[in-house]
Amino acid sequence: MEKIAVVTGASSGIGREVARALARRGFRVGMVGRSEVRGADAAAAVRADAPDARIETFFGDLSSRAEVRGLAERILDRYPRLDVLVNNAGVHLRRAKVSVDGFDRMVATNHLGPFLLTGLLRDLLVKSAPSRIVVVASEAYRRAGTLDPARFAEPGVYGAGGSHRVYARTKLLNVLFAAELADRLAGTGVAVHALCPGPVATGLGRDLPVPSRTGALLARTPLLRTPEQAARAVVRLAADPGYDTGTGYHASVRPARLLRASPAVRDPALRRAVWERSEQLVGLPSR
């Protein structure tokens, strides 16, 4: 039976390498991105490495509720089943921006969009079980500070260091979302895992004031992992047999013991509050 995977943020970086690896494993892969030009180039690169694989492209801006709903409709129209959903898309913006729906754009792209897309594909994933959802987060979540469930999506001025704090908040939201979703899907056959891949040389921070030469130099040192290295860990959670019976794994490729733990992750009340507020913001019914 043909296995089908959808990977967001697949036009470059980790997402493209995840799509490539899954295609090599025989998956039919839906590659989701914002840019049709970059998406077509990425799909061509994956097809070149896996010429027998079925590769399709989908386009949409995850910061827009309307575009996410349109994206989900196209995926549901195209695929009769869904074995793997990899929520990988993300941005790190230098300056505060407001989404078309009035939310902080980084929060909308990194959390609310994936939350809505997963909710809209949830029934197909359950019907296709055993299936898996992988949420690509970041160890930056540990620096998020206090999270207000009622106001986490409100736009505002970032100020000095503000973009890093908001980015960390979105990654904490990712981890909380994955943990709560794992609990809510327990017993359905859908396994949910989160992964913090560590520092990776991708285009994620292309809007940040870091010279490209600096990034290129760091990419050649052990300080940054390559997208291919990070993708291996994602693919293990998404496709390896060892992860098909458990759920709720939160993996990190960095030694987490060296980093301050976030008590927020162990707070079930916070997880529920974030979930319920996210449902309200994206317009999903409570489940």
Automatic annotation (TrEMBL):
Coiled-coil regions, chain positions: none
EC number: 1.1.1.100
GO molecular function: 3-oxoacyl-[acyl-carrier-protein] reductase (NADPH) activity
Enzyme class at the top of the EC tree: oxidoreductase
InterPro entries: NAD(P)-bd_dom_sf (IPR036291), SDR_fam (IPR002347)
Repeat in keyword set: no
Record's keyword annotation contains Nucleotide-binding: no
Keywords: Oxidoreductase
PANTHER family: PHOSPHATIDYLINOSITOL-GLYCAN BIOSYNTHESIS CLASS F PROTEIN (PTHR43157:SF31), PHOSPHATIDYLINOSITOL-GLYCAN BIOSYNTHESIS CLASS F PROTEIN-RELATED (PTHR43157)
Protein name, UniProt field: 3-oxoacyl-[acyl-carrier-protein] reductase FabG
Organism: Actinomadura rubteroloni
Gene expressing this chain: fabG_5
